[in-house]
Write a structure and sequence with these properties.
- With 163 residues, the protein is α+β, with helices and mostly antiparallel strands.
- The protein has a single domain (12-158), classed as Beta-Lactamase (2-Layer Sandwich).
- 34% of the residues lie in helices and 26% in strands.
- It has a six-stranded antiparallel beta sheet with strand order 3-2-1-6-5-4, sandwiched between helices.
- The mean pLDDT is 93.
Length: 163
């Protein structure tokens, strides 16, 4: 049985280390990417304060297609290079946006979203999709979040059957 731990007042860096340990335990013995991505989205959504969406988009011929997530219904397809997710795919690196209304071409799936961070899923040089987190709070994400989420993505990919 997995027990979800909540932040007991630690600083963000410490909390992300604990979150990484929880992810390792949650994914132990499982390599199905969809199953682990679904649990990862739930872990993030219920562990990180201030989120209104946490989930994945998978690479598809026409761009990105919705994968496992937590939050309100979302845009199903994102064309190549569009929005923050498309920018992360194009750049092949994390994109942190303090104010989505100032990001050219932002795609508003939820009008309540104010900030966003998108981490590309790259395994063995192949891009498989992105992890996308939204918040209704301006400037909610920072470099500590970026480092912690990039580490969680590495853990997820290490425990995945993507080839």
């Amino acid at each position: 049985m997995f027990i979800l731990e909540t932040n007991g007042g630690e600083d963000k860096s410490t909390w992300y280390r604990r979150l990484a340990s929880q992810a390792e335990a949650l994914f132990a013995g499982e390599t199905d990417f969809i199953a682990n991505a679904a649990n990862c989205a739930a872990l993030l959504f219920h562990s990180l304060p201030g989120l209104n969406w946490a989930g994945f988009y998978r690479k598809h011929d026409e761009g990105l297609v919705l994968g496992p997530f937590q939050g309100k219904p979302a845009c199903v397809r994102i064309p190549h290079g569009k929005g923050v997710c498309g920018a992360a795919v194009f750049r092949r690196r994390t994109v942190l946006v303090e104010n989505v209304h100032e990001f050219p071409g932002h795609i508003a799936c939820d009008s309540a979203s104010r900030s966003e961070i998108v981490v590309p899923l790259i395994k063995d040089g192949c891009l498989w999709g992105v992890l996308d987190l939204d918040s209704p709070i301006l400037k909610h994400f920072d470099p500590v979040d970026q480092a912690g989420l990039e580490n969680l993505v590495e853990i997820l990919l290490r425990h995945s059957d993507l080839k």
